[in-house]
Amino acid sequence: QVQLVESGGGLVQPGGSLRLSCAVSGLTFRVSTMSWYRQAPGKEREFVASIGAPTASTNYADSVQGRFTISRDNTKSTVYLQMNSLKPEDTALYYCHARPILGPRYWGQGTQVTVSS
After folding, report:
1. How confident is the model at residue 26 (pLDDT cuts 50, 70, 90)?
2. 115 to each of 19, 36, 61, 65, 95, how far by Cα in Å?
3. Among 61, 74, 63, which residue's Cα sits nearest to residue 34?
4. Nearest to 56 by CA among 66, 38, 69
5. Over the stretch 83-94, which tens digit does the pLDDT of each residue have?
6. CA angle, 14 as apex, 51 and 70 as ends, to 5°?
7. How far apart are CA 101 and CA 48, in angstroms?
8. Cβ 22 vs Cβ 35: under 8 Å
9. What is the pLDDT of residues 47-60, one digit of tens each?
10. Rounded to whole angstroms, how far apart are CA atoms 97 and 72?
């Protein structure tokens, strides 16, 4: 059974930082491309960042480039999203996504990030 469990969300003031984690089980993590997506109220889910396997090449949405950093620890089967200089428009439900080499793709249940003073 594949599980993606996000954590680390919360309420933060503008300009603050948060670090999201996504712990993965049930698939071969080290060869899976991992991504973060987000969905704000009333908006469609959008891509935030991805990290490939095995090269760990990264890709970011323009809106978070330079502020967010995605990373992975294959020994812990965990992917991270370090979010700095947070803005109110970053408020959303953040989802972890796994794309194995073969087979279906998987989503986590989401973790809420709220940026507000």
Report:
1. very high
2. 13, 17, 18, 18, 17
3. 74
4. 69
5. 999 999 999 999
6. 10
7. 21
8. no
9. 999 999 888 999 99
10. 13
